[in-house]
Amino acid sequence: MMRFIQPRKNAAYRKELHGYLIFNSRAACLMTMALVLAGLALDHIFYPQFAPEFFVLRIAVCALIGLVLLSYRGAWGREHIKALTYFWICIPQAMVSWMIFKTDGEQSIYFVGLTFVLSGMAFFLPISFLEATFFGTLTLVAYCAACIWRKGGIQDFHAFWGNALFMLFYAIIGVSLAVYNERWRWLSYRLKKEIEQKNIALQQTNRALAEIKGHMMQQEKMAALGTLAAGLLHEVNNPVNYSLMALNMSLMDPGVLKSADLQESLGDAKEGMQRVQSIVSDLKTFAYQQPGDTSNSRIFLFEKALQSALRLTGFELKGIAVPVDLPLDTHVRGDEPALIGVLINLLGNAALALHKAGRAAPCIVVRAVHVGERLEVTVRDNGTGIQPEHLARVFEPFFTTRDVGKGLGLGLSVSYAIVQRHGGSLRVSSEPGAWTEFAFDLGLAHKNV
C-alpha cells in the first residue's frame, strides 16, 4: 500500500494531480447532475407517491452540485478542489440513502444508486487507496443506517445482507481500481517527465551537433583556402621577391643616395612590397602549421604591435577618434606580424563602417584587459553595425558585404584562423545601425607553455 501512497509526496506530482482533479471533478459533476435528473423517471415508475417530494430533493441536490461546479471557476474553488470534491460526492450518497430510508429499505431499488456512486468515484476521480476505502466504508454505513433506522427496521435480512454484500463487492472493486489508477497515473507521470528530459537532452544534442557541423564546415573551408593560399604564396612571392631585390639594389645606387626624395619614394615602395609579402604569408594560417614552427611562442609587447597597426591604417583612420585603453607593459606570446595583421583588418573594417555611417563623431575604441592568464582585446566602433542575417557569416571565407571589386572577403576569415592558431577565439557582437564589437584573446607572456 505504501508504494502507492509515497508518490503523492512528490510536489510536482501533486501539482499535476491537482490539475487532473479539476478537470475530472468538473466532468463528474456534470455527469452526476445528469444521472440525478434522469432518476426522476425511476421515481415515477417505482414510487409515484414520492415523486413530487423526490423531484424537489433531486433539484436541490443538482443545485448544490452546480454551485460547487461554479466555484471551480474561481481561485478559491480551484485551491480547495479536493475538499469540495469530497463534499459534493457525499451529496448524492446522502440523497440515495434518504430515499432508501423513505421507501422500502433493503427492498428499495435505490440501493443501485449507491453502487453508481462507488463506481463513478473509482473510474473518474484520482482518489488514493485510503480515500477509496473511506468512501466505500461510508457508503456501506449509510446503507445500513438507512435500512436499520427506517420505520419497522430491517424486515428482509436475506435481501439486506445480499445488497450489503453486493455493495461490498463494488467497494472492493473501487479500491482496486483506485490502486490501479494511482499506479498508472504515477507511471504515466514518470514517463512524461522522462520524455521531457530526453527531449531536452535531444535538443541540446542537436544544438551541439549543429555547432560541430558549423565548426567542421569552417574547418573544411579553411583547409580549402589553405590549399589556395599555398599556391598563391608560391606564385605571388616570386615577383614580390624580385621586386624587393630590385628595390634594394636601387637604394644602393649612387644616384639614389644623392636624392633624399628618391630614397623616400623607393623606401615607401619597399615597405609596400614587404606588406604585400606579409599579407600573402598570413594566408598560410589556413594551412597546417609546420612542425617546429615556434612563431606562436615569441614574446612581444602588445602596445608596440597595436601602434604599428594604427600607423599602417593611418590613412583609413583619418578623421576618426581612436582612444586606446591598455595595461602598460603587457607582453604576450604569439606571432607579432600575424597579430598586427589581425588588428589592421579589424581597424580597417571599423573605419569602413564609420565612413558608411557618416557619424558626426566617429570613434573606434580599442581596449585590452587581463582575464586570468589571457589578454582580452576588444575593438568597438559606432558605425553601421552588422545585420543579424550576416552576423553568423562574417568569418566565412569570401563572404563580404562590400561592393564588387572592393574586397575578397578574406580579411576576417584569415584573422579568425590566426587568433585560433594562438589558442584564442575571435568573436563578434553588434547592434544594427548602432555599433559593432570584435573581441579576441591572447596568452600572456608569463603563462607556462
Keywords:
single chain, 449 residues, alpha+beta, Heat Shock Protein 90, five-stranded mixed β-sheet, two-stranded antiparallel ribbon, 15 helices, 8% strand
Structural features, described:
The protein is α+β, with helices and mostly antiparallel strands. The chain has 3 domains: 201 residues, no CATH class; 66 residues; 149 residues, Heat Shock Protein 90 (2-Layer Sandwich). 65% of the residues lie in helices and 8% in strands. The protein contains 15 helices and 7 strands. The strands form 2 sheets. Strands 2-4-5-7-6 form a 5-stranded mixed beta sheet, covered by helices on one side. A hairpin with a 3-residue loop joins strand 6 and strand 7. Helix 4 packs antiparallel against helix 6, helix 6 runs antiparallel to helix 7 and helix 7 packs antiparallel against helix 8. The longest helix has 95 residues. It starts with a helix and ends in a 6-residue tail after the last strand. About 2% of the residues have low confidence.
Helix percent reads 55-70%
The tally of beta strands, per DSSP, is 7
What is the mean pLDDT?
Answer: 82
Strand order of the largest sheet: 2-4-5-7-6
Helical/strand content category = alpha+beta
Low-confidence stretches: 285-292
Which descriptor suits the 3D outline?
rod-shaped
Q: What string gives the helices and strands in order?
A: HHHHHHHHHHHEHEEHEEHHEE
Beta-strand content:
5-15%
Largest sheet: 5 strands, mixed
Distance between the termini: 64 Å
| C-alpha-based Rg, rounded | 43 Å
